[in-house]
Every structure is written in structure tokens, then in C-alpha cells.
Amino acid sequence: MLQKNTSGLYTSTILSSLTGITHGFSTRTFGDARNMKNRKRILASTGLPSARLVWQKQVHGIAVGLVDEMSCGDTIPDTDALVFADGRVGSGVSPILSVHTADCVPMLFVDPAARILAVAHAGWRGTIFSLASHSVRAMVKHGARRDRIIVTIGPHIGACCYNVPHERARRFLVNDRYTRAISMRQGQWYLDLASVNTAQMVDAGISADHIDGSNYCTSCRVDEFFSYRKDTGETYGEIMGFIAFTA
Predict the structure, then answer these.
(1) With a threshold of 0.90, does the pTM exceed it?
(2) Minimal CA–CA distance to 54: which of 34, 71, 68?
(3) Sequence-separated contacts (24+) of 184-188 with Cβ below 8 Å
């Protein structure tokens, strides 16, 4: 479950129970996260240094980029997920991994024992090609354990609002694991992207109890979040999800 904190960010109940980790999802109030000044404002609300931020140029694919200390301040091209693996303890603020969305599904991952972080951005394309599973596998490759990985799903367009053409729905209907994520109402197909991503993570070995879902639809709550479908060219922007080790 996500809750709004005193800084105006939405945070995960499960991640907030962990020490030495700072994370959050911004809102419309902070402005369009594609603007660097707004990113600095978001991070300033948590005390995180913006110089440690790692941005990504998302392309609706399944490429997972590996981040290290030298990546701080960089924009990683042509990626939709990032992984940071660092076995050191007490080394201060890690690179701050970020993901930016407006209806797509943002995900934050952590194995706190192995000090491994990941973020992912899954629209329908990233979802159909199982970016969530690719992210888990990348974490495991660098030392994470599936039974320790914790994931938070951020604000995204929900099944209540995400109507899709039949051809897109059909691509999900062919997989028995995803049929519950597809529904029809008044002749329109609706897709639950978070449900599919959750199923993929469970199939990849993540405990369902370690996956913290979002209780906010960006389309329903356009007062709080940006929405690709609901906003106009004048009002459109993106929120930022981020996660970092702070100790």
C-alpha cells in the first residue's frame, strides 16, 4: 500500500519498514519530473543529493542497465530498468535509481541484505515482454536472492481506466496466467498491467508477500498524478519514482 508522507511523496508501507533505504513517488505538486529543477525539488524533500541521481532514457523496451558509482549524474540511454549492486555496508548514499512515468507501471526493487537495487518502467510493451522478470534475473545475476527481494509498484493507470484495443488484449489473453488481468465492460477491453507484472514477478520467484501494490490509479487521480491519457499537451508531465541506500 502507498501512503502520502509529510513531504508530499507517496511511499510504500513495506519499503518504509526497512532501515537505510529512502524511496518515494512524486506527485503533480512537484511538477514535471522531466525537468531537472523539479527532480532536485523532489530529492530535496527527502534530503537526498541530486548529484547522486541516475536518470534513464526510457524506450518501452526490456533493456536493463547496470549502474555503478561512476553513473551518478548520468542519463542511461535506451533502458527501461536499472540495477545497482554494491556489497559495501555503511558507505553513505548510493546512486539514486529513478524511473519516470505517467500511466505506465513504475517498480522499485531491493534486496537489502545484498545491497542491490533496481527500478523498472513497464508500459504494455514492457509488460508483454516481461520486463519485471528481466529485472529480477538481473538482480539475481549480481548477487540478489529471490526470497529476499522486495518490490513496490507505484501509481499507474488501473484496470478501472485502461481500455485497450482487441488486438492488444488478445496478446495477453493467449497466456493463461494473464487472463484474469483482462476484462470486458460495455464492449471495451480493459487491462490490469500491475496484475500481469505481479504474476511475472511471482513466476520469477518473488514471494507475493514481498510485492507491495499501488492503491492509486493515475487516471482516476489526475489531481495528484500525471496521466498520459487524461492530461492535455499543456498539463502533461511525469512523476518520478526513486530508491537509494542511505547508510
Answers:
(1) yes
(2) 71
(3) 188/163
CB atoms within 10 A of CB 58: 23
Q: Which residues of 173-190 are buried (b: 16+ CB within 10 A; e: fewer)?
A: eeeeebeebbeeeeeebb
Instruction: Kindly report, residue by residue over 114-144, the tens digit of the pLDDT.
Output: 999 999 999 999 999 999 999 999 999 999 9
Q: Are 121 and 176 in contact (CB under 8 A)?
A: no
237 inside domain: yes
Q: Which domain holds residue 227?
A: 2-157+206-245
Q: Are strands 10-12 and 2-4 parallel, antiparallel or unpaired?
A: antiparallel
Q: 154 vs 76, 77, 86, 173, 186, CA distance in Å? A: 21, 22, 24, 24, 28
Domain for residue 165, yes or no? Answer: no
Q: What is the CATH number of the domain that holds 9?
A: 3.60.140.10
Contact predicate 122/107, CB 8 Å: yes
Cα 244 from Cα 239, distance rounded (Å): 17
Contact between residue 21 and residue 84 where contact means Cβ atoms under 8 Å apart: no
Query: Looking at the 3D structure of the chain, how many domains does it have?
Result: 1
Residue pair 230/19 in contact by the 8 Å Cβ criterion = no
- 90 pLDDT more than 60: no
Residue 70: pLDDT band by 50, 70, 90 thresholds?
Answer: very high
Distance separating alpha carbons of residues 54 and 123, to the nearest angstrom:
20
| pLDDT tens digits for range 205-237 | 999 999 999 999 999 999 999 999 999 999 999
Q: Say if 226 falls within a structural domain.
A: yes
| β-strand pairing of 150-153 with 105-111 | antiparallel
> Domain for residue 121, yes or no?
yes
